[in-house]
Amino acid sequence: VALVLAKMQPPWGSGLAFLYAHCLAFLMPACFLLAGKRSISVKALTSLGNIGQRSVLGCTFEPDIWMGSIAIRWAKAGVAGLVHEFQGGKDHLQEQDALFQGRTAVFADQVIGGNASLELRDVQLSDAGTYQCSVTTARGSGAAVLQYRTGAFSTPKVRVENGSSGDTLQCEAPRWFPRPAVRWTAYSDAGECLPHVANTSYELNAENITLKVVSFLRNVTANATYTCVIENNIAKATGNIKVTDFSITRGTNLQLVNLNAESVSSSLPACHWMLLLLPYLLSV
Ligand SMILES: *[C@@H]1O[C@H](CO)[C@@H](O)[C@H](O)[C@H]1NC(C)=O
Ligand SMILES: *[C@@H]1O[C@H](CO)[C@@H](O)[C@H](O)[C@H]1NC(C)=O
Ligand SMILES: *[C@@H]1O[C@H](CO)[C@@H](O)[C@H](O)[C@H]1NC(C)=O
Ligand SMILES: *[C@@H]1O[C@H](CO)[C@@H](O)[C@H](O)[C@H]1NC(C)=O
Ligand SMILES: *[C@@H]1O[C@H](CO)[C@@H](O)[C@H](O)[C@H]1NC(C)=O
Ligand SMILES: *[C@@H]1O[C@H](CO)[C@@H](O)[C@H](O)[C@H]1NC(C)=O
């Protein structure tokens, strides 16, 4: 509401501004009555899906102790049917779009605590897009929108291969999409950066979307730590290997890009409409 007020300067003299503000104070409760419901806060979290796997589209709302009154609706921009609907403690899938059949669920036992997140199984590349999470409870209703991104990512395995021309490291990750960049870092125990030359190849997997990534680092020396870094616009994964004369120590890490974004919104459509009419009503 503050946002709407800031955008709308009264089009007449400042003398009437007080009257304008005063009327708003009286109109707001009327708005709630007209809308029939108060608004509740709903939050959606930017979410990421790994092709072929299961994933969660995050959404939370102000909890309500009466399960019977809670309705959750998930919709996707550009898709005619619903993604998922849950009402009175049960799924209602009559209006579900065929695209999502058999692949969705809400966490029924968590709904009472304000968790409206959607589980999506067998994620497809085409599932990416804008999703809306709408929730209605006895206290009111609200909705929030999230951007869902899809791709493929996996942790790499790094191993040492003995060759005739010195040892070679091999870094291999089974599934990536879009095509990631691969780089290596090499540090001696003394902390100096070692020169290195890598050779990376990409191989299309059987489902024709994801790529198998293989990178070789030749001429590896002992007493050094090598890290293979695989990165695209959705994820960054690293594989470490520390090579000494006597032992090999490994480590891996996978981190997803940009998962902190959160969108918050609550809808009051009837009130927006009233506020927009206000200048007109006052000038009559
Ligand atoms: C909702 O519950 C599911 C299942 O316990 C969990 O994986 C998910 O992180 C929860 N979502 C939120 C936003 O709390
Ligand atoms: C590699 O060569 C070293 C000696 O140079 C040997 O100890 C080691 O077992 C070899 N590893 C493999 C996998 O062949
Ligand atoms: C990269 O590795 C492949 C497979 O081992 C090999 O055929 C190719 O010659 C290598 N290229 C370079 C520049 O080392
Ligand atoms: C992958 O693409 C190849 C050629 O483009 C095609 O022959 C094959 O049927 C495709 N496989 C799948 C699973 O779509
Ligand atoms: C491998 O390393 C040795 C010394 O560490 C160096 O003399 C040689 O040029 C290197 N070979 C390649 C192909 O980088
Ligand atoms: C690696 O470090 C060990 C112990 O510090 C040392 O004995 C060995 O000579 C070193 N090897 C190389 C190739 O520098």
UniProtKB/TrEMBL annotation:
A GO CC annotation given for this chain: external side of plasma membrane
InterPro entries: BTN3A2-like_Ig-C, Ig-like_dom, Ig-like_dom_sf, Ig-like_fold, Ig_sub, Ig_V-set, IgSF_BTN/MOG
Sorted UniProt keywords: Adaptive immunity, Cell membrane, Disulfide bond, Glycoprotein, Immunity, Immunoglobulin domain, Lipoprotein, Membrane, Repeat, Signal, Transmembrane, Transmembrane helix
Domain Ig-like: 29-147, 156-244
One GO term (biological process): negative regulation of T cell activation
Keyword Signal belongs to the record: yes
Coiled-coil stretches noted in the UniProt entry, renumbered to this chain: none
Name of one Pfam family that matches: C2-set_3
GO terms assigned for molecular function: signaling receptor binding
Subcellular location: Cell membrane
Keyword tRNA processing attached: no
Membrane-spanning ranges: 12-35
UniProt family annotation: Belongs to the immunoglobulin superfamily. BTN/MOG family.
Function, as annotated: Negatively regulates T-cell-mediated immune response by inhibiting T-cell activation, proliferation, cytokine production and development of cytotoxicity. When expressed on the cell surface of tumor macrophages, plays an important role, together with regulatory T-cells (Treg), in the suppression of tumor-associated antigen-specific T-cell immunity. Involved in promoting epithelial cell transformation.
PANTHER family given in the database record: BUTYROPHILIN, V-SET DOMAIN-CONTAINING T-CELL ACTIVATION INHIBITOR 1
Protein name: V-set domain containing T cell activation inhibitor 1
Natural source organism: Bubo bubo (Eurasian eagle-owl)
